[in-house]
């Protein structure tokens, strides 16, 4: 199967995909800052370069795109029809790298939160995700994963 755009256009499109300061990340950062949390950004000295580092809580937060980081059972996780073998290999490497970074951080004593893009697409979702993160940071639990399904469960409880 061939690509429906030329190589230069595809290259320009792919180069425009941001690795940091994405919309979901910026929205979550604003919500956490408004709640009084202070953090460092994209700490290069830590495995996986977490999006937020909260030293006071010994915690890091990753804001993962569902497509690139393969959020299980998410509607935003798909495989492009062009060159599916290439994409599958790329996605598998991303997941392996994410798991290795998460494991290294936990072994080093860090608490790890993963907020999926699907949980931070709309302002009301960001607020619920930030509330869940706030409660997690104060709880002392080692890990939390926040996706769209966790937001639905939280709204049903609250």
Automatic annotation (TrEMBL):
GO molecular function per UniProt: endonuclease activity; hydrolase activity
Could you tell me the EC number(s) of this protein?
Answer: 3.1.-.-
- Which keywords has UniProt assigned to this entry? DNA damage, DNA repair, Endonuclease, Hydrolase, Nuclease
Which InterPro entries does the UniProt entry name for this protein? Answer: DNA_mismatch_endonuc_vsr, Restrct_endonuc-II-like
Q: Which Pfam families match?
A: Vsr
Q: Enumerate the CDD domains for this protein.
A: Vsr
Q: What are the BP-aspect GO terms?
A: mismatch repair
| First-tier enzyme category under EC | hydrolase
Q: Which NCBIfam families match?
A: vsr (TIGR00632)
Q: What does this protein do?
A: May nick specific sequences that contain T:G mispairs resulting from m5C-deamination.
Q: Which family does it belong to?
A: Belongs to the vsr family.
* Record protein name field: Very short patch repair endonuclease
Annotated source species: Fertoeibacter niger
Question: Quick one: which gene encodes this?
Answer: vsr
């Amino acid at each position: 199967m061939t690509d429906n755009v030329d190589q230069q256009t595809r290259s320009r499109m792919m180069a425009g995909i941001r690795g940091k300061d994405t919309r979901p990340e910026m929205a979550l950062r604003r919500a956490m800052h408004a709640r009084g949390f202070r953090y460092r950004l994209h700490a290069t000295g830590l495995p996986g370069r977490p999006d937020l580092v909260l030293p006071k809580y010994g915690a890091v937060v990753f804001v993962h795109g569902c497509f690139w980081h393969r959020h299980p059972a998410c509607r935003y996780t798909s495989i492009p029809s062009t060159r599916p073998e290439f994409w599958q290999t790329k996605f598998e490497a991303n997941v392996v790298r994410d798991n290795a970074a998460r494991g290294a951080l936990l072994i080093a004593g860090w608490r790890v939160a993963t907020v999926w893009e699907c949980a931070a697409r709309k302002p009301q979702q960001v607020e619920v995700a930030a509330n869940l993160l706030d409660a997690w940071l104060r709880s002392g639990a080692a890990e939390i994963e926040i996706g769209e399904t966790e937001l639905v469960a939280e709204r049903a409880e609250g």
